[in-house]
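Need tokens for this chain, all 303 residues.
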Amino acid sequence: MAKKVLVLMGGFSAEREVSLSSGEDICDALKTKGYEVVLYDLQNVWDFMKVLRKGKPDVVFNGLYGNWGEDGAIQGMLDLLQIPYTHSGMHTSMMGMDKNLTKYIAKTCGIRVAQSQKMTARQFFANGTVIPLPYVVKPVSDGSSVGVFIVRTQEDMLKVKYKDLDREILVEKYIPGKELTVMCLEGKAYAVTELKAGEEFYDYKAKYTKGITTHVLPADIPYEVAEICKAYAEKLHQALGCNTVSRVDLRYNEEDGVVLLEINTNPGMTKLSLVPEQAKYAGISYADLCQKLVENAKCRKMD
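Here are the structure tokens for all 303 residues:
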């Protein structure tokens, strides 16, 4: 009997539209593999509970991105319900979403990270930062470059805007150079992609608008640099305890070397997304990738 997979998409974050797009593609791919697939747009948690109770899926494919989807929230809920789900568990998801905590863990693994300072938006607007110009301001916990600002001059500080002044942000030294990314699948990194964005940096628009960003795969970088990138991806994947797939974003220049920016424990799965592209390069089709995620799905077991 075919497994029943509920593909969870939509959600409440700024990445809702991307999640909806991913969900459709995931659904189509899983159907080609013979799964019984239910597509569900999460807009109301109580309704979702009813759907789970009535439908009794064998696996939930977590196609949610951003807050509430990849920060441990939905993972903890599914753990309590004892329903296996794709991608990483609650603790790993929480740690991976917290950029400051990720940097701390990365440093313990010998991974190079940029100088940074954690504070609230209120503290930043009142007192500034000890990080010298140029620097990047971004939320401690968010995805797809949402709410990211590059500050090159004092005047650029006026561009930094956050509605919630108590929101935790990270001010990080700006690392110039090549924008690189690496997928780690089942513990192995296969290749490095360079992202050449037409915009100022690889922001939300550049990530999800066709034609704006050029993906160079494999990246045109020295062999030794590519090996460092792949080693960083595998080390952090293992250190955080990621399940099945993750993706790290990095910067490289000759002066600073390879510097970690962040990890994605639930990376994008749209047709423009980098993980399916690197999987294809490694000889793994989109449908096979989705199947791997389903077959590796799990939840925290109650003792």
